[in-house]
Amino acid sequence: MRRPGLEPGFLPREVPPTAGLPVRVSELFGPLAPDLPALAAQFLGVEEVGISASGSAALVLILQTLRRLRARRQVIVPAYTCPLVVLAVVQCGLQPVVCDVAPGSFELDPDHLAALSGPDTLAVLPTHLGGRVARLYPVLAVARAAGAFVVEDAAQAFGARVQAQAHAQALVAAPAGTQSVGLAGDAGFFSFAAGKGLSLYEGGAWLARDAALRAEIAATARQLQTPAWGFEAWRSLQLLGLALCYRPRMLPYVYGLPLRRAVRRGQLAQAVGDVFDLPIPLHPVGAWRRAVGARALRRLPAFQAALAQQAQRRLPQLARLPGVTVLGYAPADAAEGGTAGDGAYQGLWPFFMLLLPTPAQRDAALAALWPRGLGVTRLFIHALPDYAYLRPWLPVQNCPHARDLAARMLTISNSPWLDDAGFARIVAELERCLR
Ligand SMILES: *Cc1c(COP(=O)(O)O)cnc(C)c1O
C-alpha cells in the first residue's frame, strides 16, 4: 500500500484503531431510497430495526421501555465496558450495578452475576466486545431465574452472528442456522459511531426478538426522539468530515496527533475517548445521514468477509506470542473453517484484543507502539468503578478481573490499511517486549 520509493514513515500515515467501513465520497450523494432501517433489517435478517442517535441512545430507548413494563430499578453491567453504558442507565433513572468479568475474559462472571441478581434486577447487559460473540447461556439462565430482561450490548458487533442452538439451553425455541446477535436475549443494540463498523458519525440501532416488545420500544422512540435540526446539521457536517478524513493520510491529524498529545500529558481516558457527558442526545437521525449509511451498508458484507480473511492469516501469529492470549480466539477453532476462530459463533474482527502476561510488558509494548501510528492502542482505560467521573453513580468496588484486563490488554487494529509490513513490525515489537 505504501508508495514505492518512500521510506516507511516518511509521509505521515496512520492506521485507525478499529476497522471501520470507510464512507466513500460518492456515497454522500444519490437518491434517498431505500432507507437504512429496512436495509439494516435485511442485513441482519430480522423483521424490524430501529435507528437511533447513538448506541447509547438505543440503550436508553430499550431501558425506558423495560422500566415501564417491569417496576424494577437495577441494571447489571460488566465491569469492563464503555462508560456510556453507565450513563445510559443513569439517564433512565435506574441504578447501575457492576458485575466483574470472568478471569481473562470480557464476559460477565456467572457466579458474581448470580450473587448480584435479585427481585430488583430489571436487566442484565452482556457485551459482545470487539465483535466477539459472548457465550450467553449462563447469563440467560441467571437472568431468567431472577425474572430479569437480557439486553445484548452489540455496539461493536453489527453483523456478528451465532448459531441459535448455541444458546438453546435457555431459549424457548431455537431456529436452525445462524442469527444476528441481539436475538438470544430480549433486546440488543448496535453503535454506528465513527470507527464502529458502519458509521453515521454518530448513530445506533436496536432490535428485539419479540414483536410486542418491538412495538413498545418503537412507541418509546416516538415519544422520546424529538427532532433537533441544528444538531442534525452539525452531525451531518461531522459525517462529511469523517468521509473526508477517515483515510491513512488524514488520520494522523484528526486521530493520531490528538491521541499522542493526550498520552504525553497522561490523560489516558481522554486519549482513547472514554470521557462522556450527560445527557445522551435522543434525536432521530436525519434522512441524509440515513441514506449515506444505507449506501455504505451495501459494501459491509464484503468488507467484513475481507477482515475475517485478514484475521485468519494474522491471528495464529498473535496466538503464538509467548504467554499472550487473544480474547475470543481459540486457535483450535481455526481448523473448523468459516470465519477465523469461530464455529457456532461467527463474530467479527474489527481489532484484536491481546492480553500480555504482565502489566509491565503491556506498558512497555504500548510505549513503543502507541507513537507509531500502526493502530495499536488500548480499549477502555479502566474498570468502570475506576473512572473518577462515574463516581457519583458507582460505588468504589472490587472487580479484580476487570482491573486485570485494563492493566494487561492492548488492541491491534484489523483495518485493511494495516499492511503486512506494518503488522510484522507490531509482532516484532511485541516479541521484543516479551523476551
Ligand atoms: C461504543 C459503545 C457503546 C456506546 O455506543 P455509542 O454509539 O458510542 O453511544 C456501548 N457499548 C460498547 C461496548 C461500546 O463500545
UniProtKB/TrEMBL annotation:
<feature type="modified residue" description="N6-(pyridoxal phosphate)lysine">
    <location>
        <position position="196"/>
    </location>
</feature>
<keyword id="KW-0663">Pyridoxal phosphate</keyword>
<dbReference type="InterPro" id="IPR015421">
    <property type="entry name" value="PyrdxlP-dep_Trfase_major"/>
</dbReference>
<dbReference type="GO" id="GO:0008483">
    <property type="term" value="F:transaminase activity"/>
</dbReference>
<protein>
    <submittedName>
        <fullName>dTDP-4-amino-4,6-dideoxygalactose transaminase</fullName>
    </submittedName>
</protein>
<feature type="active site" description="Proton acceptor">
    <location>
        <position position="196"/>
    </location>
</feature>
<dbReference type="GO" id="GO:0000271">
    <property type="term" value="P:polysaccharide biosynthetic process"/>
</dbReference>
<dbReference type="InterPro" id="IPR000653">
    <property type="entry name" value="DegT/StrS_aminotransferase"/>
</dbReference>
<dbReference type="Pfam" id="PF01041">
    <property type="entry name" value="DegT_DnrJ_EryC1"/>
</dbReference>
<dbReference type="GO" id="GO:0030170">
    <property type="term" value="F:pyridoxal phosphate binding"/>
</dbReference>
<comment type="similarity">
    <text>Belongs to the DegT/DnrJ/EryC1 family.</text>
</comment>
<dbReference type="InterPro" id="IPR015424">
    <property type="entry name" value="PyrdxlP-dep_Trfase"/>
</dbReference>
<dbReference type="InterPro" id="IPR015422">
    <property type="entry name" value="PyrdxlP-dep_Trfase_small"/>
</dbReference>
